[in-house]
Amino acid sequence: MSRSYLQKFKLLTGHVQNFLRISTFPPMATTRRKFIGHTAFSLSAWGLSPAAKAMDGNVPQRLRAVCVGGHPDDPETGCGGTLARLANEGHSVTIIYLTSGEAGIVGKNAAEAAEIRMAEARAAAKIIGAKPVFAGQIDGAGMVNNEWVDKLHELISREKPDIVFTHWPVDSHKDHQCASLLTIQSWIRHSRKFDLYFFEVCTGNQSMIFRPTDHVDITTTREQKKNAVFCHQSQDPQGIYASGSCNHALMENFRGLEADVPAAEAFIRAGQTLHFG
Predict the structure, then answer these.
(1) Which top CATH class is 63-269?
(2) C-beta separation of 229 from 95 below 8 A
């Protein structure tokens, strides 16, 4: 790697971290006062703020973000507010849906369900300001093999991402696990050159053992996210927001309390350094 390229890469990495590093704190900071103290400090680093621009006196490069989800509605539900913030601030956002939701509508065959759910995903992506891409796996039959490692790596590589979001791999749904593991393989093949963040969905029912390293304040994009999720009418969006098994309204409120903001989304950053003592 040339010196000039290395300097450029380090600078871009700094911009990415300033954009997304909303709350990174040592796991041992367990008291609420310490917890909120770390969070409040790093919340100020969100976005292309004057402070971030002042790092080198230049406007930061336009970032490229990719989100890989198991089904139509997963990216919107897990990190739609964050994706909307990225898009609203002028960055490129691509959503890759591993499957097209073929098994997701009772009374519809696979082709009919896929047609409906892909249309819903396109409408949701438009609200967020993202480009939708459908990888081509089948809902309920997620696969992790050499062929699909290559395929998803190619789809991600085309976008030349600076930031990638995907499911936390400890999840009760196999398709979510597959999306996560395939994305991790692409991250490794890219020599970890993009920042990788894991999001949560229906925590406790689907995502499990989720201990965030970062929070994004989605107060300004919460309604935009909700409008995107409600494009998925076939998936009972009201239930996504308020059911006993998947209450994302409660999750957004709780993550907001953690970050001392009205509403937030939480993430685990790959490669997070553990702190002891």
Answers:
(1) alpha beta
(2) no
